[in-house]
User: Which sequence fits this backbone?
């Protein structure tokens, strides 16, 4: 995995810490832990999964206290089993205890996204199809959630409204037809901007093929209809399937021959991976 630069991650960690520290800092830790006490804690997996978010966890500690040592024992994208050590932090006990919840929030959530992605990637591994995320991300966390998707073996869809065109059903409804929507897009965007069009029926697909674009999104089609659509496209556009994608339904969609399968739940509904931070005795 190519890590995201710290300059992109720091505002996220800083904002989360400010939210947690509030106006008076960590009342509990400051009352119980004397200044100068040093300690060590270990992040350990409590269930199987795929890790993501180590750099955000590290930054959470070092923003509180630059002298804290954060040692990763695995890398983002690695699979872990229950009991596996993920990372060790060492330094001022006050600093470690103040930062622990924010670090765990980031690490658990992003590892959950990576793990959810990996379940779909594994489900279609017998085919060439790739798993992709969507823009259904937590506000403010899109870059790191999409990074976590990559850690889970998935691919990224567009990052925002400004880096590619995706003509959806409501755009087509307002424009009046697939053909008119595509005509307006071509007149508006530059030649380097990729265009994808969502279609709900094979009739819409046939209309789109009168003026093919870069990619077509086959929305909420059965595996049987998806296979027909792939055959109709005949390699002239990238094919993407979406809608009601689960671990159970993804294999049949992949076997229908699509290039991509996109799922929103791997970011917006991924369950946190259970990772604990426990006091180290050695």
Assistant:
């Amino acid at each position: 995995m190519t890590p995201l630069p710290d300059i992109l991650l720091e505002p996220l960690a800083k904002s989360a810490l400010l939210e947690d520290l509030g106006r008076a800092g960590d009342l509990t830790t400051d009352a119980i832990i004397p200044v100068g006490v040093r300690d060590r804690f270990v992040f350990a997996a409590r269930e199987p999964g795929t890790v993501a978010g180590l750099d955000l966890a590290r930054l959470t500690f070092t923003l509180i206290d630059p002298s804290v040592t954060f040692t990763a024992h695995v890398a983002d994208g690695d699979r872990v089993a229950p009991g596996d050590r993920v990372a060790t932090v060492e330094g001022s006990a006050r600093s470690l205890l103040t930062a622990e919840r924010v670090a765990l929030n980031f690490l658990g959530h992003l590892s959950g996204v990576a793990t959810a992605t990996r379940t779909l990637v594994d489900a279609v591994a017998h085919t060439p199809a790739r798993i992709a995320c969507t823009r259904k991300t937590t506000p403010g966390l899109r870059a790191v959630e999409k990074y976590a998707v990559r850690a889970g073996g998935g691919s990224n869809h567009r990052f925002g409204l400004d880096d590619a065109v995706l003509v959806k059903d409501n755009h087509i409804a307002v424009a009046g037809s697939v053909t008119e929507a595509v005509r307006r897009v071509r007149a508006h965007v530059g030649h380097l901007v990729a265009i994808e069009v969502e279609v709900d029926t094979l009739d819409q697909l046939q209309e789109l093929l009168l003026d093919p674009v870069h990619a077509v999104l086959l929305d909420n089609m059965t595996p049987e209809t998806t296979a027909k659509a792939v055959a109709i496209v005949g390699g002239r556009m990238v094919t993407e399937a979406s809608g009601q994608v689960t671990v159970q339904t993804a294999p049949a969609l992949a076997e229908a021959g699509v290039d991509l399968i996109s799922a929103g739940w791997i970011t917006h509904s991924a369950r946190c991976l259970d990772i604990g931070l426990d006091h180290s005795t050695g």
Q: What stands out?
A: The mean pLDDT is 97. The chain has two domains: 6-115+270-279, 122-268. The CA atoms of residues 73 and 86 lie 5 Å apart.
